[in-house]
Amino acid sequence: MQNLINFLLFAVLSLALGLGSAYYGVEHGFAFVAPRSGAWRTWVSAGSLTADPYTRAHIARFGDLPITSASGLTYVASSDSDGRELSSSCDYEIVARPLNAIWWSIALYDTDGELIPNKADRHAFNSQNLTVLPDGTQRIALSPEARPGHWLPSGEDHDLVLVLRMIRPLSIEQQRQGVFFDGLPTIKKVGC
Amino acid sequence: MRPFWPWMLAVIFCAGLLHVLAVFGVPYVASRDAWARLSAISGENQLYLLPIAAPDAPLPYMAPDVAYAFCRFDLTQRNVMLQTELGDASWTIAVSGRHGENFYFISGAEAKRRELRLLLVPRSRLSEEASTERSEEGDEQIIVITPEPNGVAVIRAPVRGPSFATDTINALQSAQCQPVIEPDPNVVAVEEPKAVPLAPVVRGPAARRQAPRQRTQVQ
Predict the structure, then answer these.
(1) Contact A18 B16 (CB under 8 A)
(2) Least CB–CB distance from B18: residue in A18, A62, A105
(3) pLDDT for A107-119, tens place per residue?
(4) Is A99 helix (H, G, I), strand (E, B) or coil?
(5) Average pLDDT of span A40-50
């Protein structure tokens, strides 16, 4: 009887630990394959010929078609800079400083990766259409209600995901040194 | 009472084994990877232009401020030529393998020319390849060696804003992706009338809301 209990415990624990940790690693990424910078996370080796198994599994599972980090960086944020989940029931302010890249963009999605329908048909701002304020910042209001300036409509009853894309953000010297981008935009909750 | 630690060791060993098998197995069992998703809507060696910010995009998290054109290439029989204008410095071309390994990338800033021609050649045929960086017609071309015969080339054209979307789409519509047909030296060339490509129609946001989405085949 004791052996049977031990075996059942063994089976349940093995499955839970083995498959649970694999799911977490593929879905969210461990820090050594998908490091965080503030609210943003990136799969560093996505698109690389030498990508690690977690990144390969993540890309295959989500159906993404990435470019390598040497060519472009993609950061994903599903929480604000204080670590709280992004929700369409709250207002946020995204504050950026012009990023050193050929082109960059911040786009808004729901958690399934779908665009959020809105009357303004607006889903993103990029380095070509964001104005720089006198203090040197670029600000985007993320809100379900219309806001002055650059307003990104967040719809209703969604959890939100922001994606920051940069084309050629790093110099060749930075790539050699393995430096990754700092000075990413902050996402601050304004109110709910 | 028997010691418990052998069971715990067995749990750690089996959990580790399951973890490794699951992580390594996902790419082989994933039925909705990018290749599968694009295969469902496209043929090979043809360029397809996707509507900008479409609500039912074929891939998740596609950039809503980028116009995408993609070509699933098959180099088993022939090389493939990808030819496009480069609207500005932010336009990019990425060539990736069947499983998403991005082995070639160029942006408009690096290309430093208005038009780009990429000749895709499989590594397996490299030894018998006679193409150079100038085509028989004298056009400059970049030879891209692909590690496997199948893959995807994606042209990404950022859109400055909604009012620029039509210009960007028009520029993308001139892009081509087609097999390179070597002239047969035993056949005397006869000039044929040029085929007129079908003008692609890309639906605007208003039309998309009312009608089911159509993907436009450029060539």
Answers:
(1) yes
(2) A18
(3) 999 998 899 999 9
(4) coil
(5) 90
Is A21's CB within 8 Å of B19's CB? yes
Residue B33 is nearest to which of A17, A22, A63, comparing CB atoms? Answer: A63
List of chain B residues whose C-beta atoms are within 8 Å of the C-beta of residue A70: 105
Question: A78-117: per-residue pLDDT in tens?
Answer: 999 999 999 999 999 999 988 888 899 999 999 988 999 9
pLDDT of B133? 72
Q: Which two tokens stand for residue A191?
A: 């109110």
Of B1, B22, B107, the CB nearest to A168: B107
* Residue A150: both structure tokens together: 């650059």
Instruction: CATH number for B34-183+200-217: choose from 3.30.450.40, 2.30.30.30, 2.60.40.1610, 2.60.40.10.
Output: 2.60.40.1610
Strand order across the beta sheet in which A36-37 lies: A36-37, A40-41, A72-77, A160-167, A103-110, A124-126
ipTM: 0.85
Contact B157, B67 (CB under 8 A): yes
From B19's Cα to the closest Cα of chain A, the distance in A is 4
A138 within 8 A of A128, measured Cβ to Cβ = no
Which residue in the block uniquely carries the two structure tokens 């397809």? B48
Arithmetic mean of pLDDT over chain A:
90
Q: How many helices (H) and strands (E) does chain B have?
A: 5, 10
What is the pLDDT confidence band of residue B191, given thresholds at 50, 70 and 90? very low
- B20: amino acid identity, one letter: V
Q: Could you state, in order of their start, the residue ranges of all structural domains in chain B? A: 34-183+200-217
